[in-house]
Amino acid sequence: MVTARQVAEQVLDPELPVLTLADLGVLREVREDGDRVVVTITPTYSGCPALDEMRADLHRKLAEAGYAKVEIRTALHPAWTTDWISEDGLRKLADHGIAPPQRLGPRAVGPIPLNLAPPVRRVSCPRCGSLRTTELSRFGSTACKALRRCEDCREPFEQVKEI
Asked: From residue 85, how far is each of 26, 61, 72, 93, 102 by CA, in Å?
């Protein structure tokens, strides 16, 4: 029999269907407790509109695999970060024309200096690799993506923002 973790790891993200919830780093824990499966997920942000769909997809896929008692839990701490996207997930984003986020690394502890200027960010075009890209809109099809255009190949593309 396929394990509950193996089933849950194959569930696609409803907003970025080129990634699984595991690729995205949203799938935190899958625990089999007797005849019950407990899955813990962390949404990309607390107001994520896809959260209900993620829960429903996980429940449906696990039920189809023969797991009758499924509980989906949401953990908001620690908060999700784009650093949780797997290396395979970053590659899949780029392969599908979406600029992946850069790694942020460990968070600073203590006071954080306030900088009101937007950060200068060089984002490479996922189609031609050019660094000559411009942001068209801070928000793309979802809140976690921005809309950009390449100045060399002139193609628009989405970028997953670093969080």
From this structure: 8, 22, 20, 10, 10
Is 148 buried (19+), middle (13-18) or exposed (0-12) by CB count in 10 A? buried
Other beta carbons within 10 angstroms of residue 112's beta carbon come to 8
Give per-residue pLDDT as tens, 101-112: 988 777 667 776
* Sequence-ordered strand ranges (E) for 4-152: 27-33, 36-41, 69-74, 98-99, 133-137, 145-150
| 3-class secondary structure, 62 | helix
| CA R_g for the chain | 18
As a whole number of Å, the end-to-end CA separation of the chain is 37
